[in-house]
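Hey L., structure's done. Input below.
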Amino acid sequence: RRASASHSDLFAETFGERPFSGLPHAGVVSGWAEIARYQAAAGLKAQNMWSAEVTPPDDINAFNLYGHSFGTAFPFFFHDDAAHQNRRIGLIALPNAYYEPRIGKGYEDGRQKIHDYLDDSAFFGRTSVLFFHPHYLAPEFGYDVQLSYAALDEVERYCREKRYTSCRYTADELTTWWHERAASGISRIETDADRTAFTVTVVGYTGMIAKLPLAGREHPAGVTVDGHETYSCVKTIDGLRWLLIPVTESGDHAVEVMYPQ
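Output:
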């Protein structure tokens, strides 16, 4: 508790604002909910401490690692223990599913690992997080930045080739994005043989995508948002067909999907 508070105070004294998302280096956590409770009280909204895979014991700074040793590709909120009513703590764990991608000398398999990771994420509908420390992209710190830039350039090139959607976010921006996604949602669902209607609530300025399982239905005859025809597409994710409907503006929106007769 004291360490979390003092780190937050030191950050505020140095930069003039409270930290928003954190990343401890080679941190060791005891207990479960305590660290999340203390860090949320210190002002943090997310923690990037979940590693991609088990780090080799002889190299705690290992790079070019990806996996899901934390059990999921998606961020999650911490929940407190029974003594604190199992309440949800306003701190998100942001898994670094691909930690420090590299391409070049010593990382000859980097290109193929990036392709495999992105393809697996697209097939199974996972979120992809490729994590780069800023100082490995800044030559003034003395690192071989070409290893990181080669990987970053390949990620963006391959996403264009495969038509995957990618975004460059700082940790704070990603934290804001996930908190907005958590506050967004779908409600008031009505469905019958002819149509499915529901309300989409969007929090934030980046919009969201509503996913509707087609479950054997043909492509819809029409899709509207607030009474206006809108773009939608059908994608197969993890072997299941989904209708994807972008809703781009904040607020409540009425969505209606009509099926062919």
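The mean pLDDT is 89. The chain has five helices and 15 strands.

-- N.
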